[in-house]
Amino acid sequence: MIKTDVLQEMKIPAVFEPDQTLDCGQSFRWEKVGEVWQGVAFGRRLSLRKEGETLLLSCTKQEFEEIWRAYFDLDTDYPAIRRDLSTLSPVLQEACTYAGGIRILRQDAWEALCSFIISQNNNIPRIKGIIRRLCETLGEQGPDGEFLFPGPERLAISSLEELAPLRAGFRAKYLLSAARLVTEGKVDLQEIPHMEIGKARETLMLIHGVGPKVAECALLYGFHRLEAFPIDVWMKRVMERWFPGKKPENFGPYAGVAQQYLFHYIRTFEKENF
Hints:
The chain is of the alpha+beta class. Among the domains are: about 5-75, 2-Layer Sandwich (TATA-Binding Protein); about 110-220, Hypothetical protein, domain 2 (Endonuclease III, domain 1, Orthogonal Bundle). The protein has 13 helices and five strands. It has helices at about 20, 60-70, 80-85, 90-100, 110-120, 125-140, 150-155, 160-165, 170-185, 195-205, 210-220, 235-240, 255-270, and strands at about 10, 30-35, 35-40, 45-50, 55. A five-stranded antiparallel beta sheet has the order 1-5-4-3-2, with helices on one face. A hairpin with a 2-residue loop joins strand 4 (about 45-50) and strand 5. Helix 3 packs antiparallel against helix 4, helix 4 (about 90-100) crosses helix 13 and helix 10 packs across helix 11. The longest helix is centred in the middle third of the chain and has 15 residues, at about 125-140. It starts with 7 loop residues before the first strand and ends in a 5-residue tail after the last helix.
């Protein structure tokens, strides 16, 4: 639970909404307990809730500046992004207004890649369970008592038998493929943010089990490539219904932000129309 003796008030952009950002499928290590969000990133646990334009967080101001300000992408000008996207179509303009509190988290790239490998043909409770067991089985304990996400070096020396307690099914061999290609230098996580987007996709898809959707998710949510545009069943419907003949690149350099606005808008506001 949130500790009031270390609670800090932080002024934040009014367009940041934790409920939208932490419940839109970007990350699987957050839970809402009552009015408080609790989660783990970079080995640190955080509890937070929003009151007006103020965030209440269970961290010091120094930790907020060193970790959480960047993690929640609070310095990016999302109002400017929304203004640009709103010019593209009336539907996108509505989505920008409805879901405009979403920000793209700046997550650890390796953890995000593995998380979306695990997400394949899976549901959110199971995804969260597999990730939790992975951290508890192979991860070291962090300063807050939380288990860190195991790095590629630790996973690369694991066997399928060692991963059996995760109950990850066919995804376990995909995790091993990712870890071994990363540790061998065949997939360079440090270079992907600087690659041309097509080359970045091709590089990630060298990993056994990583197809176009997982690659797009990893690029957007792990490498903060805002031009990436994951397409699932919901987004296929969105494109067919409101953007026939259009491609992700038609949304410009902030296609991934548009995707998040549209995804959240359709699933929570227009769901009954499908």
